[in-house]
Design a protein that fits this description.
mainly alpha
């Protein structure tokens, strides 16, 4: 069986898109976080790469949900990091707990998909 290319790269691109989306939002709309053009550039490039990656390859079964979870993980990671850096925004307890739960769920789901792929062979 031919293994699909770029499964992990899709998840990584979704994570980067989530990080840069939250960073762009905070840079543009939060007075606490100083302005920087780099989150905007990162957002444009990651969405562009995800778009081309999606056009070139079909996602295997189960990976769209993992890509969405990876995107959400990126959003939560950036939120937790900013809340550590600027504690006036609020506590980072809930995002940190959600990050841990989401990471364990993604790892478990990847193992299940890998096992299903091995059983199909």
């Amino acid at each position: 069986m031919i293994k699909p290319l770029g499964e992990k790269s899709t998840l990584l691109l979704a994570l980067i898109a989530g990080l840069s989306l939250n960073g762009s939002f905070l840079v543009l709309f939060s007075s606490i976080v100083p302005f920087s053009i780099f989150p905007l550039i990162s957002l444009v490039l990651s969405v562009y790469c995800l778009h081309h990656h999606y056009q070139d390859r079909a996602m295997p079964m189960g990976y769209p949900l993992l890509a969405a979870a990876s995107f959400l993980l990126g959003l939560l990671i950036y939120s937790a990091i900013i809340r550590v850096e600027y504690p006036i925004i609020g506590s980072n307890f809930i995002p940190s707990i959600l990050i841990v739960i989401l990471v364990f769920w993604i790892i478990r789901r990847l193992k299940v998909l890998k096992q299903m792929d091995q059983d199909a062979d």
